Amino acid sequence: MTTQRLERVCALMQQYKVEALAINAGPDLKYLTGLDFHLSERPALLLLTAAGKAAFVFPEFEQDKASHSAIPVDLFPYPEDAKVWPAVVYHALADLNLINIPLAVSPVAMRFLEMDLLRQAVPETEFISGGDIFRDIYICKDEQEIRAVRKAIEIAQTALLNTLPLIEPGKTEKEIANQLVVNLLYAGCEPELPFSPIVAGGPNSANPHANPGDRPLQTGDILIIDWGARFDGYVSDLTRTFAIGSIPEPFKEISGIVLSANQAARARIKPGVLAGDVDAAARDTIIDGGYGKQFLHRTGHGIGQLPHEEPYISSVSTTDLQPGMLFTIEPGIYLTGIGGVRIEDNVLVTESGVDTLSDLPRNLVIL
User: Fold this and answer.
1) What is the mean pLDDT of the segment spanning 149-158?
2) pLDDT of 38-90, one tens digit each?
3) Which string of b and e fits 202-241 if b means at least 16 CB within 10 Å?
4) Domain 143-366: which topology?
5) 1 has a pLDDT exceeding 80
6) Which of 54, 156, 185, 364 lies deepest, with the highest CB count within 10 Å?
7) Which CATH superfamily includes the segment(s) 2-138?
């Protein structure tokens, strides 16, 4: 599968007339090589030509790890002495005949550390954006990626179901979030979660990206839980809303509007439809319900190795939906100082329409 990914990346480089890519540690490196190097004070650089020849610059103590690349790559280890790093990078560039050739980089992932090292190695290096390439790489998922996301969803849903019986008045948001993390790990989530769970009760649930606090839950609170899991490097991102003991006014009505918006957006999904039209399906439902100004964010975003990536399901998006796109649908209504409701599902665009991969109940469940 990784060889097919390399061929795809090289084809995109040729399509966009890019001669070389420079990739640092993180998801881009793992996608192409299978190598799981994390960002640190020690740089790691993959240099790739449009013909598919690659060189990897890395700390010499990681020699064994680097030797397990899933694609052919020439290895250029460097010692601890940072003064010699530019020379090692120069030799890697020279090995690929890339001296003074423009290097395309990710506008999101590339750090100053690696770019400065490249400049020290070849001061005349011109950096260009590889944004179009990286967008096209990730925007549609292959079967291996889809399987991993499905498993990440399964893990996340299992963890939440194991957490719900512990939720009751008097429990704090932090206590619930901590138990959810434990249950995610027990269910098979990788140690590196895609993000810290959002557990927001009462007035805090009106903040779309709330941080769990020390406030104990009270009867009549609305409780939003936004959580996800990571499996084989790929993530899920889900949200469900609950009521503690009873459903306060006006949240019975609001939860119905948000559920209808979620359903309307998912029903609009099929190949060729604009992402902006999917957003409109959710947004118009909420506007018609009288809460348009309380829908504070876009309807969704892509998921993959990162919890937020292309495609973005927003009112201004002109992206045509294509089979293989994986993204969230997460309309919400937020009443400042009172509470909020959000329902978030993970969906896959198929040849004929949409496959909703998450299947926990979407109604406002009383705990």
Assistant:
1) 99
2) 999 999 999 999 999 999 999 999 999 999 999 999 999 999 999 999 999 99
3) bbbbbbbebebeeeebeebbbbbbbbbbbbebbbbbbbbb
4) Creatine Amidinohydrolase (3.90.230)
5) no
6) 156
7) Creatinase/prolidase N-terminal domain (3.40.350.10)
